[in-house]
Amino acid sequence: MKYKLLGRSAMRVSELCLGTMGFGEEWGWGASKEESKNVFDAFTAAGGNFLDTANYYTAGTSEQYVGEFIADNRDYFVLATKYSLGMKRGDPNSGGNHRKNMVQSVEASLKRLGTEYIDLYWLHIWDFTTPIDEIMRGLDDLVRSGKILHIGVSDTPAWQVARANTLAELRGWAQFTAYQVEYSLIQRTAEREIIPLSRELDLALTPWAPLAGGALTGKYLNNDPGRLKAESVRLNDRSQAITREVVAIAEEIGCSPAQVALRWTMQERVNDEISRGVSIPIVGATKAKQVADNLGAVNITLSDDHIKRLDAASTFERGFPHDFLATPNVRDLVSSGMYEQIVNHHR
Fold first, then answer.
1. What is the per-residue pLDDT for 230?
2. Are residue 180 and residue 156 in the same domain, yes or no?
3. Which helix (H) or strand (E) holds 197?
4. Domain identity same for 249 and 325
5. Per-residue pLDDT tens for 301-337?
6. How high is the pLDDT of residue 222?
7. Structural domain range at position 329
8. Where are the beta strands (DSSP E) in the chain?
9. Residues of the chain with pLDDT under 70
């Protein structure tokens, strides 16, 4: 296991993050406390120190389990949790990004986790309601109080994140250091705005669902394609074709399809206009053998040919202005005919 800096912060986190949404059985699926501990032990034995949970996960059970598991060595772990999702049905202030819910949520999470501070506190989902200054000042107050050390943002439009960090920078408030989004070979649309923004603002990218809900492991390939297409975009004809390429490369390398799919999200790219920069996938598991397999992604490397094949299989339309700006004519015009001769480290 290697360790990466969490974006603009100097905090060191393992190159894979353990997602604990499946810790607890309150939602009708997930892992028992015993199996959750097995998953945790497998991850930490491999050097993992970055843990991701949320107040909403399994009605608070996930936070309780994580808190118990790290209690004897709390300071070693980089503990991340979230707020935004409503915990009390019928209470209009129990959900959202606003300060009241923020304060209530962080206090409840601290109690469930059995800790005095949270290393990384995520805004979970953008609510399109709360003013940005209320959010950023509220989070800055929590940082100044010592209850949280760093802040991150999840499932939020890129332009809002840009506004938030710019405002925080101008006013001397804490800025977002990490950006959590759905990203995988099957779901690459984060490459339009989110990933370029993450690179520009030095935000660590932490992809959730990097295996597309298990689709990229290949376990659905033998099922009826028509039925699968009706079930989910992760299982339609395009997704099945992508998965077959993942499986083929895994057989060539001698590893699992999950490891190939994870490595694609992790591996930094050279001379590539869609470089992911610092990417730390969140791997969720309800069985120890699943996380053990995922951990194998840190020990493989994809060749340039493998990357090109996976990119080609999962290609998608980026739309305007991205496709327009990438045309040879536009590149020629903005570079005075010198595009290939200009070494641009910002790409």
1. 45
2. yes
3. helix 194-201
4. no
5. 999 999 999 999 999 998 999 899 889 999 999 989 9
6. 76
7. 317-347
8. 3-5, 12-14, 17-19, 50-52, 78-83, 118-123, 148-154, 176-182, 204-208, 282-284
9. 223-231, 270-275, 345-347
Query: Domain with 168 in it: what CATH number?
Result: 3.20.20.100
Task: Out of 3, 56, 57, 83, pick the active-site residue.
Answer: 57
pLDDT at position 236: 87
How do beta strands 17-19 and 12-14 pair?
Answer: unpaired
Say yes or no: 146 and 24 in one domain. yes
Contact 80, 122 (CB under 8 A): yes
The count of structural domains within the chain is 2
Please indicate, yes or no, whether residues 329 and 301 belong to a single structural domain of this protein.
no
Catalytic annotation present for 57? yes
- On whether both 275 and 328 belong to a single domain, the answer is no
Threshold 0.70, pTM exceeds: yes
- Is there a single domain that holds both residue 34 and residue 144? yes
Cis before 157 (ω within 30): no
